Amino acid sequence: FDPRTLARQLQVSQSQASLEVLDAGLQLLAKLDGRSSLRDYFGPQLHVFGGRDALVPVSAADALGSWMPGVTIEVLADASHALPLERAEEVAGAMLAMISGVRG
Hints:
Layout: H1 3-16, H2 19-31, H3 35-40, E1 46-50, H4 59-67, E2 72-76, H5 83-86, H6 88-103
Parallel strand pairs: 1-2
């Protein structure tokens, strides 16, 4: 993983999307409250957090664990908000481990 390469990729991706579309997405996120959907879903849940996420603090993982003790939570210590891009193999591994545990 090379942080500079990832930053360049994200900048190119951002510059290709219109600012209006990005703003509309952020406005929608500001209005959404998915807590009831999380709480009402009775299947297995995996939540992966980045320890260096500037948008979602790692303390959210602790709060989620307290609020929903049955969910699986993984924290990738050196990952940022772009953790699926930065640490794709680890995220996929966590998903596979959970799926294997659920099906096994």
